[in-house]
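seq:
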Amino acid sequence: MKIAILSVFYPYRGGIAQFSGSLFRAIEMNHEVKAYNFTLQYPSFLFPGETQFVKPEDRADVIPSDRLLNSVQPFSYLKTANRVNDFKPDVFISNYWMSFFGPSMGFVAKKMVSSAKRIAILHNVIPHEKRFYDTPFNRYFLNNHDGFVVLSSAVEKDLLSLKPDAQILKLEHPIYSHFGDKIKREEAQNQLKINPEKKTILFFGIIRDYKGLDVLLSAFGMLSDDYQLVIAGECYGSFEVYQTQIEQLGIQDRCHVFNRYIPDHEVAPFFSAADVCILPYKSATQSGITAIAHHFCVPLIASNVGGLKETIIDGENGTIVAESKPELFASAIENYFKNDLQQTFSENIRIKNKENSWTVFADKVISFALEIK
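struct:
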């Protein structure tokens, strides 16, 4: 079959580009697939990070794509649609994660040939940080697709609030496999220059207010000197408020900060060094960090928000904390180590991983598309 994917791909970086690339590689094993990419994703003044692009030293998967769509240039919308239609796809897949892209991606979907089944994989519908245009842009995008793949019940609920008649397939986020193998704990901790004798907890990924790093720092301040915290990820905004909190709590000697984007080839040491990964989120739909942690068989302790508890099963492969409160996270972390839960949780993750491949995910998406009336 011919499958077209409209999303962000290499040379862009970040979780959606990684997701899209993994999906492309899985589909190309059995079908003819083409990737359609952005020439401009965000205007630079709207992007809060250092750069939208991979750097020369990053070992990213170079997905071949046609870079056509400019999110703020309407003439490019029609150009992109025409180019996709020239391919004559049987299935057109959009990866959608932010309402800002509703007009551009929605227009391309609207102009698809009638023979193409239009499927949107929804990473978010209602964003964590709301803007005045969210609802109209979302509705425009959703109304130009035939079916929807969601990765959590939280996103499914948001979708149904805007499109009650939506045809939906709910799938679990596949396990990322492009970060390489886990390395020995001691070797990883030596690479990161952290203390191998301490219990190591990890906060990983882009730092934004809703992800609750401030909650984790307060919780960490309640723990004994037996613990160390690794913070790895680029801060969207100023890290100064967190650095001040670290100093006020007097935990700077046990807190190892890597405030930068972590390229794919550097991910393994962080998860290999960690005994547990923490998601103290104040709000969420699902998290790609879960898929990374599970690839490395690292258990998670997470807030009971959004769809996190759908993949982090409390008492089976991780711990769900009732609320994003410091004292609750401190207690959950202490309980995790006191009861030596790492080995049991890691083994359960390892068993589950065998069922959650990108190939299985891709096959289910395409089958769903063909079943839509």
